[in-house]
Every structure is written in structure tokens, then in C-alpha cells.
Amino acid sequence: MLSYQHAYHAGGTADLHKHAAMCLLLERLAEKDKPFAVVDLYAGHGVYDLTGGEAQKTREFEGGVGKVWPLRGKKSPPGITRLLGGIEALNPTGQLVRYPGSPALARGFLRPDDRLILNELHPAAFIDLKRWAARDKRITLHKRDGLEALVGLTPPPIRRGLVVIDPSYEIKTEYADVPKTLRKAHRKWKDGIFLVWYPILADERHADLIAGMKSGFDGEVLACELVFDKPKGAKDAPGLCGTGLIVVNPPWQFDQAMSETGEWLAKALTKTGRHGCAWLKRDDAPR
Ligand SMILES: C[S@@+](CC[C@H](N)C(=O)[O-])C[C@H]1O[C@@H](n2cnc3c(N)ncnc32)[C@H](O)[C@@H]1O
After folding, report:
1. From CA 22, how far away is CA 195, in angstroms rounded?
2. How far apart are CA 235 and CA 170, in angstroms?
3. Among this protein's residues, is 218 annotated catalytic?
4. Whose CA is closest to 270, among 64, 125, 75?
């Protein structure tokens, strides 16, 4: 299908939630001397121009990064501080004109021996991504179907790292196909950390995804949701009602760090919205 274009949505609330979680996970991976790999299966364009036609048409970034950008320099949880640092690196004059996609954020954490494996199927997005990644020897690019690549590209040669699964959910069956395929990938890479983003819509079609993530995984599985203000009298309102994340094998105490970050975001971005994390599967064994 490939009609989705992330440039219309870059820097919106969903990006902030997903990217703050990514920052927390990447920070943990970069704490140790050992190299890590990031596999980003739906990478998008790399970096987004907020002054461009797409971003200006929806102006979604105003309700997301536009609200958080003025808060830089004030006290914020580590996930937000790191995310703001990544955004500041692209906007050195202080004027918010560019927003980092998941590849740009991940690249900000890479050391010489770490690796970033990017996949994107959309021809135009792939060209932008290739241009953006040019000559960085730590980055490899693929143009494959994301779910096929989830199994094909895992585990990466460096067996310590993160897989980012951020589909556009243009095809309804993706909600059921993601957990099915993720189970196969997880069997091949038991220690990998897997981050899945999903939209929360009024018709709750993400229920299939949540149900599928509750079984068939050896490790722990955490879900975190940021639910927006309810539009007045709009039970079946179109558009996002919230943004969700699932993490397979979350690092120790990630749930606490993500709760703090998510609650901060709910306060900064919404009037009455809320954030919560819940275990879909919890290991009882003490760590
Ligand atoms: C939500 S956007 C990705 C945003 C990016 N992860 C970020 O956070 O900056 C989803 C991307 O998946 C791409 N895409 C859609 N269907 C795909 C497929 N079957 N395989 C790989 N990429 C696909 C779209 O072109 C789009 O760039």
C-alpha cells in the first residue's frame, strides 16, 4: 500500500512518546562498554523538516515537540532530557525547524563499534534515508518488507541490542501479524530488546496486538500507553486517541523510568490525558 508518509506526523505526540522510550533504552545499552546494535525496521526518512509542506499542512508537531521545546533547560526526566538533546543537536540556533526520526536519534547514541541497521520500503523515504546515512560506516540499509525483515535481520551479528518496530498500520492485519512474527524473531534472539509502537484508536483495533503479545514470549513484556484528552461527545472520533508502546525484555527498572517519562509527557502535552504502564507478562523469578 505504502501511502503513509511520516513527514505529516513527525514531531507529534506519538513520536515524542516512542522517541523518549527509545532514548531510555539506548541510554541503557550505551552504559556498558560492550558494543550494541539497533535494528530499525520502519525507519522513515531519518530527519524531518518542520518547515516543509507536509509538516506545515497538518501542523501536528505543534501539539507535540512544539509544546516540549520551550521546556528545555528546565528539570525533566532522563528520557525527555536525552530526547531534547537530540532535537537541540538539529536546531543549534534555538529555532525549532527540524525533528529527528528514530534513525537520527539512534545514531546519536552510537559509538565507533556500535551498529545501526535501517530498513524502509517506501522508495522516496528510502532515497532520503540513504542520503542521510551517507558514508557512516556504522550504518547499513535495507529495503525490505518490515515484518519479513524482522525475522530476516534478527539476530544481528552483534547480539546485544534493540529492535524498533514502528509500522504504519495501513493494513488492519498488521495488528495480529506483528505479535505472530515477533514471536518468531524472539525465538531466534531471546535476549534482544524489542520496542513496538501502536496507535490507540476509538475502535480499539490494537486489542489484537495486545492479546497476541500476552503469550509465546519467554521474557517479560511491558505495555505503556499515553491516552489523550477525550474530544467532546466524540465516541467514535477519527484520529489518534492515544499512543502505545510494547517492550519485550525491558531492562531492569525501565518500567519506572518510562512511567516517570510518560507522566511528564501527559502533563506537558495534554490537559486531562494520562499515562500508565502494565505488565503483559511478568517474570516472577527474582532478578
Ligand atoms: C511510522 S513511520 C516510521 C517513523 C520512524 N520509525 C520514526 O520514528 O522516525 C512508518 C514507516 O514505515 C514505512 N513502511 C510502510 N510499510 C512498510 C513495510 N511493509 N515495510 C517497511 N517499511 C514500511 C513507511 O514508508 C514509513 O516510513
Report:
1. 8
2. 22
3. no
4. 64
Q: What is the DSSP letter of 58?
A: H
Query: Over the stretch 1-28, which tens digit does the pLDDT of each residue have?
Result: 789 999 999 999 999 999 999 999 999 9
Residue 283 CA to ligand 1 center (angstroms) comes to 32
| Calpha distance 53→137 (Å, rounded) | 32
Cell 490494537 belongs to 206
Q: Measured from the CB, is residue 58 less than 6 Å from ligand 1? A: no
Does pLDDT of 72 surpass 80?
A: yes
pLDDT tens-place string over residues 190-201: 999 999 999 999
Could you identify the residue written with the cell 502533563? 267
Nearest by Cα to 153 from 1, 283, 143, 233: 143
Distance, in Å, from the CA atom of 103 to the CA atom of 99, rounded to the nearest integer, reads 11
Contact 35, 111 (CB under 8 A): yes
CATH class of the domain comprising 6-281: alpha beta
Which residue in the block uniquely carries the three cell numbers 525475522? Answer: 151
Which ligand 1 atom sits nearest the alpha carbon of residue 45? 27
Q: How far is the CA of 163 from the centre of ligand 1 (A)?
A: 14
Is the Cβ atom of 246 under 6 angstroms away from ligand 1? no
Q: Which of 166, 177, 208, 255 is catalytic?
A: 166
**Do the Cβ atoms of 226 and 261 come closer than 8 Å?**
no
Tell me the longest C-alpha to C-alpha distance in the chain: 53
Q: What is the pLDDT of residues 125-174, one digit of tens each?
A: 999 999 999 999 999 999 999 999 999 999 999 999 999 999 999 999 99
